[in-house]
Amino acid sequence: MKKTFMGVRLKRLREERRLTQAALADKLGISLSYLNQMENNQRPLTLPVLLALNSAFGLDLQMFAEGDEARLMSDLKEVLSDPSLGETIATAEVREIALNMPAVGRALVGLHRRSRQAVEQAAALAARLGEDRQADAAMLPSTAFEEVRDFFYANHNYIAELDETAEQIALKINLKAGQAASALASHLESDFGVRIVLDGVDDIAAGTQRWFDGQTKTLHLSRRLHPGQQAFQLGTQIAMLSFDRELQALVDKAGLTSKEARGLARIGLANYFAGALVLPYALFLEQAEQRRYDVELLTQQFDVGFETICHRLSTLQRPSARGVPFFFIRVDRAGNISKRQSATDFHFSRVGGTCPLWNVYEAFANPGRILTQLARMPDERTYLWIARTVSHGRGGYLAPAKTFAVALGCDIRHAGSVVYSQGLDLSDPSVPTPIGMGCKVCERPECAQRAFPPIGRALQIDETRSRFAPYATS
């Protein structure tokens, strides 16, 4: 067992139980001086002491675990990098808060989030009134979208109630891989009396993929959708019709602060159900493991798009049957993140974009090609990433198309289970590309791609060098 210093948590436990140090030491069968040293982090909390705590108080020992430490540290580093604080907080201090005072850390993150939301709302109002100040801040993602993303992030991108129910329905209707559209259409018609109509370009509003007429019980789908997309829209409608109360209960439980956020969350949960219905958990996990998570083979097997497979792979976190814990992200050419899902503790920055050395941006220069990368974060954790572009057309020759880059990543310890690790030397420490969460929060001072210093750090001016000069040329 590695050395674990949990003095503050031990002291908090004692104070909650209203025990003196002497009384607690007596219950644990240790000396008063030894307990005092543990509470002051002069000695680690050992396994025998943990077992004594469990025996004396019937405690869940998870309260002394470090499982969420990395996630909380990432959030705290972002919060404490705010230049308005006027302080430079060392990584060691951040880790001390995350490890020994997690409740305080979570409170700080919550306060920062509310403060940031207020600033963004003020900036958006200023922009609507025609004021130029804080115009850049008004371009940040809306609070409602961020709230919904945080909800899925907090649930590790796995919603058990919806996933299990969707799988049961898939088994009930004997849904076959790659044949979901016809099976779901039959289910809607037989169980709900819904008629499916495929509409042409002129019959359905621009950009609309699904429209349900409740009076006539007619579901209109765009004729432009391929069978996999049709299946997804059919699954979403099944969720709306059959599990409205369940969706609303999950939304209410999330504690979202605005009507817009609650509406987005309901749609997001319905979409989650649709993905779980079209790609049932056990079947999809079995096929994914057999093919070593080869995304293109899975798209052929289930007749859905590359992005849909990547998104579903990031949700395989059922406690009794876990897949590789993937992170999923979708960006456009300007670096705007429109989707981000994480099954584990990889942290996507909300401050000033992401890292240009990340292969998700190189994908735009190689359309349709899968790029692989070993990337090392500033905390020395290394990840395997794949990235590829996806495009969505909306019509004829002159109609604009949407192009994104989607990326799928996992911790290097899982790389051996993934086909994309072939040909990569996982043991050579010089192979991974050093990346960060964005220049404003990245601590790599010697990065050749750095655009500006990290926020909260004093800028050291050196007239003999051109680094960070506003008009310097290469």
Automatic annotation (TrEMBL):
User: Residues in domain HTH cro/C1-type?
Assistant: 10-64
The domain of life for this entry's organism is Bacteria
Q: What are the alphabetically sorted keywords of the record?
A: DNA-binding, Transcription, Transcription regulation
Q: Which InterPro entries match?
A: Cro/C1-type_HTH (IPR001387), HTH_RamB (IPR026281), IrrE_HExxH (IPR010359), Lambda_DNA-bd_dom_sf (IPR010982), ScfR_C (IPR018653), TransReg_Diox_bact_type (IPR050807)
- Per the record, a Pfam family? Peptidase_M78
The UniProt family comment states: Belongs to the short-chain fatty acyl-CoA assimilation regulator (ScfR) family.
Q: What is this protein called?
A: Short-chain fatty acyl-CoA regulator family protein
Provenance organism: Bradyrhizobium septentrionale
The opening ranks of the lineage are: Bacteria, Pseudomonadati, Pseudomonadota, Alphaproteobacteria, Hyphomicrobiales
